[in-house]
């Protein structure tokens, strides 16, 4: 890629109530730059392509190694992680926009509360009773541990929700990531004690019935999590749970 500058076309927004607008920047190019490096250039030299001084572009990032999930944004029309997206692998000019599924706070910074509220709804944690010295708990079978580990890679980046056509302002569907976390915590020997509660939450409005099986989520997940496999397994589990609820028995 023989070039000295890089053109970035960035969708910006000054605050949650203002209208979005597009601003173009030309930044110095370096081999093996990622999108975060390119955005840093706009902060070092906040001058747009027209030579006008402007405000530095705002975005979120933390780990810079595809672990925290904070730097999710739409790059060339695809939701992805800015830290692991290399400019050498992108078509030029590079178009960068905030994820549309979540409310914009400023520029590329979005409010992902919708996703975190969904995780609360499905109780995506292992409840404890305050004790800590009861010794080791039940062991998880190795075959189960292997696929559960894959689910545990979720970094709540929100990319799968951005790609899902059923997660939008007109829908209360919780999305693929919270669904997959239900399967993860229900597989845990201790978390399984609250399995019924999580499945009951999935049978409410916005739960698993909101999935349209577009399979976009599994295509864009930066960690390669088998989200559709989890959703298929949860379809079975919720059906069994509905029979248990109907007959009032755990023996079904």
TrEMBL record:
Pfam families: Fer2_3, Fer4_8. Keywords: 2Fe-2S, 3Fe-4S, 4Fe-4S, Iron, Iron-sulfur, Metal-binding, Oxidoreductase, Tricarboxylic acid cycle. The keyword Metal-binding applies. PROSITE patterns: 4FE4S_FER_1, 4FE4S_FER_2. It is an enzyme of class 1 (oxidoreductase). Signal peptide: none annotated. This is succinate dehydrogenase. Residues 145-173 form the 4Fe-4S ferredoxin-type domain. GO terms for biological process: respiratory electron transport chain; tricarboxylic acid cycle. GO terms for molecular function: 2 iron, 2 sulfur cluster binding; 3 iron, 4 sulfur cluster binding; 4 iron, 4 sulfur cluster binding; electron transfer activity; metal ion binding; succinate dehydrogenase (quinone) activity. It comes from Saliterribacillus persicus. NCBIfam families: dhsB, PRK08640.1. Its cofactor is [3Fe-4S] cluster; [4Fe-4S] cluster; [2Fe-2S] cluster. Belongs to the succinate dehydrogenase/fumarate reductase iron-sulfur protein family. InterPro entries: 2Fe-2S_ferredoxin-like_sf, 4Fe4S_Fe-S-bd, 4Fe4S_Fe_S_CS, Beta-grasp_dom_sf, Helical_ferredxn, SDH/FRD_Iron-Sulfur, Succ_DH/fum_Rdtase_Fe-S, Succ_DH/fum_Rdtase_N. PANTHER family: SUCCINATE DEHYDROGENASE [UBIQUINONE] IRON-SULFUR SUBUNIT, MITOCHONDRIAL, SUCCINATE DEHYDROGENASE IRON-SULFUR PROTEIN. Its EC number is 1.3.5.1.
């Amino acid at each position: 890629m023989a070039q000295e500058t890089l053109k970035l076309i960035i969708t910006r927004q000054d605050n949650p109530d203002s209208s979005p607008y597009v601003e173009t920047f030309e930044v110095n190019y370096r081999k093996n730059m990622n999108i975060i490096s390119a955005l840093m250039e706009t902060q070092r030299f906040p001058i747009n392509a027209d030579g006008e001084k402007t405000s530095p572009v705002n975005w979120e990032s933390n780990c810079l190694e595809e672990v925290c999930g904070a730097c999710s944004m739409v790059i060339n029309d695809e939701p992805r992680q800015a830290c692991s997206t290399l400019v050498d692998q992108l078509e030029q000019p590079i178009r960068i926009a905030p994820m549309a599924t979540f409310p914009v706070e400023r520029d590329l910074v979005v409010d992902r509360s919708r996703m975190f509220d969904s995780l609360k709804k499905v109780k995506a944690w292992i409840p404890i009773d305050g004790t800590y010295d009861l010794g080791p708990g039940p062991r998880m079978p190795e075959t189960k541990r292997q696929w559960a580990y894959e689910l545990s890679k979720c970094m709540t980046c929100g990319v799968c929700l951005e790609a899902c056509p059923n997660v939008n302002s007109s829908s209360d569907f919780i999305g693929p990531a919270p669904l997959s976390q239900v399967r993860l915590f229900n597989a845990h020997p201790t978390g399984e004690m609250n399995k019924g509660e999580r499945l009951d939450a999935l049978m409410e409005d916005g739960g698993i019935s909101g999935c349209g099986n577009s399979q976009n989520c599994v295509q864009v997940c930066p960690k390669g999590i088998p989200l559709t496999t989890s959703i298929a397994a949860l379809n079975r589990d919720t059906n069994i749970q509905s029979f248990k609820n109907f007959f009032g028995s755990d023996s079904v």
